[in-house]
Design goal:
By secondary structure, the chain is of the alpha+beta class. It has two domains: 84 residues; 152 residues, no CATH class. It is 21% helix and 32% strand. Helix 1 runs antiparallel to helix 2.
Length: 277
């Protein structure tokens, strides 16, 4: 009976982690580029309480007797399905349709990846414009360098609201005839991964490369990849389905309650056993 106490306790711990994950999904239901997370569980060790050859003459029994020792969290997996695209009034709002990620340079100089395309142009040295995140992190081009617009194009002072980004991420500026033209081969970098679920989450909607994800694959230089599409004036909403999360929350709550009942039942059985004369 003591075994059932520990088994039920593992179930309560696992379901608490499940509720924590669901709560995080619901908290980020309106977070741009957020990807819903799901808990995966696996059973713990099994204990043999009767072998297959326990008969007196050593004959094999058709079925042995094993009892499980509980459950644990195997992983918390991000689901990289496409979120809905929401129109934005910002000229520097970008959404990715496809499997790609934006690349940004963190404060530590390392490269991180994100699906959050809520960017801004900030003033740089000499009146240049640098594309950056809302936290000031520089957005990287397909060459892996910060995206910097020159101070002037065709003798005209560059105005951020006139900058146009094509579907393949190329940055363009209108000429004298108001026709968008590429600027210094600048393009927003788009990168993919062999296993995006293996990326490490570091907060602020950022991911970093891990051994499980594999290295970043540049869409601009890898012809084998399916090219993503950049949508200017749109943001990708989270892919959290509130109805599904509410159902999962109810299931997790009931499972937690059942495990607590198992602990109470075991405790009562132990009390009765101790009171035997």
């Amino acid at each position: 009976m003591v075994r059932s106490l520990w088994t039920a306790a593992t179930g309560m711990i696992a379901q608490q982690n499940n509720v924590d994950t669901i709560a995080n999904n619901l908290a980020n239901v309106n977070t741009t580029g957020y990807k819903t997370e799901t808990n995966e569980f696996k059973s713990l060790l099994y204990q043999n309480i009767q072998t297959r050859t326990s008969t007196a003459n050593g004959d094999n029994k058709p079925i042995g007797a094993q009892v499980g020792l509980g459950v644990r969290n195997a992983s918390i997996t991000s689901q990289f399905t496409q979120g809905s695209l929401l129109e934005s009034e910002s000229n520097t709002a970008f959404a990715i349709s496809g499997k790609g990620f934006f690349a940004v340079r963190g404060e530590d100089g390392q490269t991180y990846y994100t699906r959050n395309g809520d960017f801004n142009f900030s003033l740089g040295p000499g009146g240049t414009l640098q594309l950056s995140t809302s936290d000031g992190q520089q957005v990287l081009s397909s060459q892996g360098v910060p995206i910097t617009m020159p101070a002037t194009v065709n003798g005209e002072q560059v105005i951020a609201n006139k900058i146009v980004v094509s579907a393949d991420g190329a940055i363009m500026y209108p000429d004298a005839n108001n026709n968008p033209q590429p600027v210094n081969n600048l393009a927003i970098g788009l990168f993919q991964f062999q296993n995006p679920k293996g990326l490490n989450k570091v907060g602020d909607s950022l991911y970093e490369v891990s051994a499980a994800s594999g290295p970043a694959l540049n869409e601009a230089t890898n012809a084998a990849l399916d090219d993503s599409v950049v949508r200017q004036g749109y943001l990708e909403n989270s892919n959290v389905q509130v109805a599904d999360e509410m159902v999962n929350l109810i299931i997790a709550q009931r499972a937690y309650e059942l495990n607590s009942k198992a602990i109470q039942a075991t405790d009562e059985m132990l009390q009765q056993a101790n009171q035997l004369r």
